[in-house]
Design goal:
7 strands; globular; 116 residues; 14% helix; mainly beta
Length: 116
């Protein structure tokens, strides 16, 4: 019985580790969408992609506070990119989200940033 419980725990943690959607912060009803960027890259054999999504874009200025960042994996089998928030984020005015694909897989993700 102990083996079965341990096995189920390990499998559930592995499944959570491969989840490809993420969110940071909390969106309120008064917040509005400031950036929606679709990132699509085709797979490269034995290589992986690393794509940065910056907010604000170079040459732009943002004076509004970020409340929430959502990254949606548009692949249905969780083979999409693993999102990471490298800098900035909620309660700041800038953000840098990195999307890193699995080896020999592409990227098909949507990044949304909400501000107040």
């Amino acid at each position: 019985m102990k083996f079965l419980t341990s096995f189920c725990l390990i499998v559930s943690l592995a499944t959570l580790g491969w989840a490809a959607s993420a969110s940071w912060g909390r969106r309120n009803s008064s917040d509005y969408l400031m950036l929606r960027e679709n990132v699509v890259r085709t797979p490269i054999r034995n290589r992986n992609w690393s794509v940065n999504v910056d907010f604000p874009k170079p040459g732009q200025i943002n004076r509004r506070t970020i409340t929430a960042i959502f990254v949606y994996d548009r692949f249905t089998n969780t083979s999409g990119a693993m999102p990471s928030l490298w800098s900035g984020g909620p309660n700041l005015t800038f953000a840098n989200v990195n999307l890193r694909s699995q080896t020999s897989r592409g990227i098909n993700s949507t990044v949304e940033i909400y501000v107040k």
